[in-house]
């Protein structure tokens, strides 16, 4: 069982209005559930220090490309942050403290660091939840450029995003406009947690998966699929009463779901125990 204090702090932080959520702090709170001895303020201070160094080197005329190149130079050339393509599914890639310590992560955690640095140098950026690969872009209308933090801050245009999707899926993929829609802090945190959920599921670490599902439900309390998944976890853990509550709630919300017969079969099994 992971440290519950971190999860309680996480739930309290994400209970704020979306625009007031401290993305780095919330990410570190859930990391504290796994690494209870980390000092949250130490990591926030490290982000502050990086931002101060970058701010000192920004040109007087803050054209977007110049700002991005300055951030890129410091993060990827001087500090040597890198995408962890060799060990992509290591859970530490999804814990912000470990990403900062090891200067390596996956697209979304490196993007969170980039977003937090950009915010601190007064150059707001937003997350872009492209399928299979997380990007960021400057937060103004018709920016037209995207940044790939996983690939050393590579600057992309829309046609590059389509090419990257085709490369990821190893077949031609047409770029739909909604693929490049911005995502908010709740959605970013949920995507980070879903990554961890899948990793721990593969390793059958059900206690950790349960905590992570609770974290996702702190972000989206009425998500029927996460309620179902929590019920299935309870079933696996022989916590019959809790499983019954969640699985019934799922069927009530989505009575015609494709997996409804299977869920009903599990409920019948519980009744016959």
Structure commentary:
InterPro entries: SirB1_N, TPR-like_helical_dom_sf. Residues 42-193 form the Protein SirB1 N-terminal domain. The chain is mostly helical. It has two domains: 4-183, C8orf32 fold, CATH 3.10.620; 224-273, no CATH class. The chain is 58% helix and 7% strand. It contains twelve helices and seven strands. It has helices at 4-14, 23-34, 40-56, 64-78, 96-102, 107-120, 158-169, 185-202, 206-219, 224-236, 240-253, 260-271, and strands at 82-83, 104-105, 125-128, 135-138, 146-148, 154-156, 182-183. The chain has a three-stranded antiparallel beta sheet. It has a two-stranded parallel sheet with strand order 1-2. Helix 5 links the parallel strand 1 and strand 2. Helix 1 runs parallel beside helix 9 and helix 11 (240-253) packs antiparallel against helix 12. The longest helix has 18 residues, at 185-202.
Chain-wise SSE layout:
Layout: H1 4-14, H2 23-34, H3 40-56, H4 64-78, E1 82-83, H5 96-102, E2 104-105, H6 107-120, E3 125-128, E4 135-138, E5 146-148, E6 154-156, H7 158-169, E7 182-183, H8 185-202, H9 206-219, H10 224-236, H11 240-253, H12 260-271
Parallel strand pairs: 1-2
Antiparallel strand pairs: 3-4, 3-7, 5-6
Features:
7 strands; TPR-like_helical_dom_sf; 273 residues; C8orf32 fold; SirB1_N; two-stranded parallel sheet; single chain; 12 helices; Protein SirB1 N-terminal domain-containing protein; 2 domains; mainly alpha
Which structural class is indicated by helix and strand composition? mainly alpha
Instruction: Please tell me the total number of domains.
Output: 2
Indicate the low-confidence ranges by residue numbers.
Answer: none
Silhouette: globular
The proportion of strand residues reads: 5-15%
CATH architecture of the largest domain: Roll
By oligomeric state, this entry counts as single chain
Radius of gyration: 20 Å
Distance between the ends: 27 Å
Helical stretch tally: 12
Written as H for each helix and E for each strand, in order along the chain, the element string is HHHHEHEHEEEEHEHHHHH
CATH class of the largest domain: Alpha Beta
Q: For the residues shown, what is the average pLDDT?
A: 95
What's the number of extended β-strand segments? 7
| Strand order, largest beta sheet | 4-3-7
User: What composes the largest sheet?
Assistant: 3 strands, antiparallel
């Amino acid at each position: 069982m992971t440290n519950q204090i971190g999860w309680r702090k996480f739930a309290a932080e994400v209970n704020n209005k979306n625009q007031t959520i401290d993305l780095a702090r919330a990410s570190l709170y859930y990391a504290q559930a796994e690494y209870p001895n980390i000092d949250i303020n130490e990591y926030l201070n490290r982000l502050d220090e990086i931002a101060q160094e970058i701010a000192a080197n920004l040109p007087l005329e803050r054209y977007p490309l110049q700002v991005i190149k300055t951030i890129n130079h410091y993060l990827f050339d001087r500090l040597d942050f890198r995408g962890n393509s060799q060990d992509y599914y290591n859970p530490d890639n999804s814990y912000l403290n470990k990403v900062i310590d090891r200067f390596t992560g996956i697209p979304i955690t490196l993007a969170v660091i980039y977003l937090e640095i950009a915010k601190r140098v007064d150059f707001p950026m937003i997350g872009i939840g492209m399928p299979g690969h997380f990007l960021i872009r400057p937060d103004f209308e018709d920016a037209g450029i995207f940044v790939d933090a996983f690939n050393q801050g590579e600057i992309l245009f829309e046609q590059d995003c389509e090419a990257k999707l085709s490369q990821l899926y190893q077949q031609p993929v047409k770029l739909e406009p909604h693929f490049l829609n911005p995502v908010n802090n709740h959605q970013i945190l949920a995507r980070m947690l879903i990554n961890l959920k899948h990793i721990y599921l593969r390793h059958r670490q059900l206690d950790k998966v349960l905590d992570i599902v609770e974290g996702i439900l702190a972000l989206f309390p009425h998500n029927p699929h996460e309620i179902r998944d929590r019920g299935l976890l309870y079933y696996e853990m022989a916590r019959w009463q809790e499983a019954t509550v969640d699985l019934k709630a799922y069927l009530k919300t989505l009575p015609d779901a494709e997996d409804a017969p299977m869920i009903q079969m599990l409920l019948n099994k519980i009744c016959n125990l």
